[in-house]
Amino acid sequence: MITPQPVQAFSELEVFAHIALALRHPGYIILDDVFSLAQCQSLFIDIKKTGRGDFRQAGIGREQGLQLNPFVRRDRIFWLGMDYQPTQFYLKWAERLQCYLNRELFLGLFDYECHYAHYPQGAFYKKHLDAFQGNSSRRLSSVLYLNPTWQASAAGELVLYAPDGGTILETVSPSFGRMVIFLSEEFPHEVLPTRCSRYSLTGWFRINTTTAVNLDPPV
Q1: Mean pLDDT of 83-96
Q2: 152: three-class secondary structure by DSSP
Q3: How crowded is the C-beta side of 61, counted as CA atoms within 13 Å?
Q4: Given its phi and psi angles, is residue 188 left (phi above 0), alpha (psi -120 to 50 degrees) or beta?
Q5: pTM of the predicted model as reported, rounded to 2 decimal places
Q6: Got the DSSP string for 70-127?
Q7: Where would I find the H helices in the chain?
Q8: Do the Cβ atoms of 143 and 116 come closer than 8 Å?
Q9: Which residue from 50, 64, 153, 169 has the highest number of Cβ atoms inside 10 Å of its Cβ?
Q10: For 133, which DSSP code?
Q11: Which DSSP category does 184 fall into?
């Protein structure tokens, strides 16, 4: 088990170095205080202001293969464009991290996509990989939790499994400002049923999988 690392006292480059080292081994990292309290509060205020009608039921798969399956997941999501103003500081941070990881680890990361996620009371997401079947463009997953005064009794933990899918590596409480980053294709994971509303900003660093017959991202 890895103890979450509080990194507020470190410079941004030092934080990026911690992340790069962890991605080499064991392939994931849990961080606290990457962003200031004020920054996290601004995201929480924005996610609470986002209307219920703007969130949609999350599905499984992508584009034509997208399916809604309440037996697998019951969260609701709101996709964030790269020009979405309330998250600009976060998106710029992700862009700098992408450049750093490409330089240090040669990951070939091409872009970043993200959404707000809301797990209403009783919602869950069963064990899965973030890499889509037939489309392995997602290389790196990130989750920033936006739950002030989160209590252990609320449950809703992220369970991270070893690549074999059977060994639990981490059970992560979605505490305010906590961030988890892991290799998308390596680590199955699930979200346990939550007993109250649970919020996060979830994203993926992607590679470009454009071929002669496939445009990525699609127009």
Answers
A1: 97
A2: helix
A3: 9
A4: beta
A5: 0.90
A6: TTTB--EEEEE-TT-GGGHHHHHHHHHHHHHHHHHH-----EEEEEEEEE-TT--EEE
A7: 12-24, 37-49, 88-105
A8: no
A9: 169
A10: T
A11: T
Please state, in angstroms and as integers, the Cα–Cα distance from residue 169 to each residue in 128, 144, 161, following that order: 15, 19, 5
Beta strands 28-32; 5-6: pairing state: parallel
Amino acid at 49: K
Spatial distance between the Cα atoms of 40 and 148, rounded to a whole number of angstroms: 9
Q: How far is CA 103 from the centre of its chain?
A: 22
Kindly tell me the burial class for residue 181, based on how many C-beta atoms sit within 10 Å of its own C-beta (0-12, 13-18, 19 or more): buried
Q: Catalogue all structural domains in the chain, each as residue range(s) with its CATH number.
A: 5-60+69-206 (2.60.120.620)
pLDDT digits (tens, 9 = 90+) for 31-53: 999 999 999 999 999 999 997 77
The end-to-end CA distance of the chain, in Å, is: 42
